[in-house]
Amino acid sequence: MVKLEQQGMPTRNHRLRWLLVFWLFVLSAVAYLDRVNISIAGQAIAKEFHLNNVQLGWLFSSFVLGYALFQAPAGRIADRVGARTVLGVAVIWWAVFTSAITFVSPEIGSLVIVLIGIRFLLGMGEAIVYPASNCMVAAWIPTSERGIANGIIFAGVGFGAGLAPPIITYTLLRYGWRASFWVSAVIGVIAGVVWFTIARETPEKHPWASQEERNYIVAGLPESKYSLSAAKLGWGTIVRDRNVQALSFSYFTYGYAVYIFFSWFFIYLNNVRELDMKRSSLYTMLPFIAMAIASPVGGWLSDRITRSKGKRAGRCGLAAIAMALCGVFLAAGAEVGSVALAVIVLAGGAGALYISQSSFWSVSADIGGASAGSVSGVMNMGCQLGGAISSSLTPWIAQRFGWATSFLFAAALALAGGAAWLLVNADGQPRIKERVLSQLEQV
């Protein structure tokens, strides 16, 4: 095998992999536009459908529950069918169930159950996005570049969620909340058509990929390479692995903390901090801007430290420190009296959290190999279960103990999630990778 150092970087005209990474960033942004729009339009929806905050929380949680429960199946589907196909189908699904809520009448029977069902089905469809993205990373991105690649992809989270407040607020105030959901659906369909046109499952199958870039990618891949036809790990092997258990627990705490921003931050500013719609919309953008900036910065730092100090420092150490910082910022922001300063501090917590983002996905791609979608799906299920609990538990805690306590509880979980990274072995030969190699030898 040609050594990566000897192969040399492809020229700027032969970096197709970064075009695909960029469009995964776009799909990531669309996915978060589709899921955050309801938190911005939530009060208008609640008023029309006569929902209280707890019932609105059920709608938030039903999306995340569907998203969480289908992470592992979605990952296995992506491993077997391929990211190009499943993401192309998924965006149509997102458009259908994003817009479905606009056709519901407040007069129908079992209204809350119908709304919960629609959001649950949207969550099911969106479950595919990051396991499928991880399949593309496993197939197209050398190990040394996976930090920055994942950082760019997950910057779409902050970008999409950050665009949601001004887009949804502008459309809502002029044309009503239903129009804002239609806009989200149309944007998604356009992005999906472009993706299906430009993407292929592997460099070997892409007519635009140069031989130079193919050679460079192959030289930088780990021994357990991604392939649709390669043997897949059994679910028991995946869920019993201590690395996956530690990653999943840490990502659970990550999900709990981040979903406060996705589900309740706009309403918190509007109702608790008593800002009007426009100021709430503006301030709500700040945590998401911090996420969009911190995600690629964290990925770049992770790759840089990994090259010089190894994965233990570059992946695990950076993630542990970043999540601990998130806990500190959340705890401090909850106690700040000034609205502007509180938002800045809390946005710092969101940014610190996203510095760790690429570590989760880089490590899961490395140890998963041909089962990268399945491994990352199990890990991401932990994150989304944390988010589902957060979406409903946060207003419950706030109602009984105050909003400061809600943020303090999330801060404590973030600290625990940072500590869990100390148990992850990302610098040696993880047991899953050894089993992949063993299974491949038997095929």
Describe the structure.
- This protein is mainly alpha-helical.
- It has one domain: Up-down Bundle (Growth Hormone, Chain: A).
- The protein is built from 20 helices and no strands.
- It has helices at residues 4-7, 16-49, 53-69, 71-81, 83-100, 111-126, 129-140, 146-175, 177-198, 211-220, 235-240, 242-263, 265-272, 277-309, 311-335, 339-355, 357-368, 372-401, 403-420, 431-442.
- Helix 8 (146-175) crosses helix 17 (357-368).
- The longest helix is centred in the first third of the chain and has 34 residues, at 16-49.
- The protein is globular, with a radius of gyration of 21 Å.
- The relative contact order is 0.16.
- Residues 1-7 and 439-443 have low confidence and may be disordered.
Summed up, what is this model?
The chain has helices at 4-7, 16-49, 53-69, 71-81, 83-100, 111-126, 129-140, 146-175, 177-198, 211-220, 235-240, 242-263, 265-272, 277-309, 311-335, 339-355, 357-368, 372-401, 403-420, 431-442. It is mostly helical and 443 residues long.
